[in-house]
């Protein structure tokens, strides 16, 4: 069976399945970034529009939707090839099978995505942008943060979700030790810059 999945007629569906597993691992491991930018949702203004038809009109996180789509595509594709082999003795040409699986898989994913959006309300309301972590406090977890030598920090957002980010001191000559609490004041790309709570400027905040 494994060798069969490597043939051209089955390969697109095997690749889709591997990518789906890869996305799941990225979500599970977090790659050191926690939930940052991984749960971005797409909001469709009208449920009857194209995005709504695709299942993206309910603020379902894009990676959850993509994982569902890949899974539906792979399962439908494998089913099509198995049925074709049972009736004709050979699978369909990969191009024909991919086209059919894309259409049927998209329709199936619409039902799956709408179902997921209903049973996972926490995802609908807790997706945040990276900039929303600014002006929040975090804790340095590993090592000391210095300019040019960031440290890993944990920040909890307004929904109680933990985010793991890389932090450098806001001041060029500053240093923040492991275990210290900091206030995130700005960011550049994926790098956040913070002021330690011991800074006199924060005593009244």
TrEMBL record:
Pfam families: YqiJ_N, YqiJ_OB. Residues 133-195 form the Inner membrane protein YqiJ OB-fold domain. InterPro entries: YqiJ_N, YqiJ_OB. Keywords: Membrane, Transmembrane, Transmembrane helix. The keyword Secreted does not apply. Residues 12-104 form the Inner membrane protein YqiJ N-terminal domain. The keyword Membrane applies. The chain crosses the membrane at residues 12-33, 62-80, 92-112. This is YqiJ family protein. Coiled coil: none annotated.
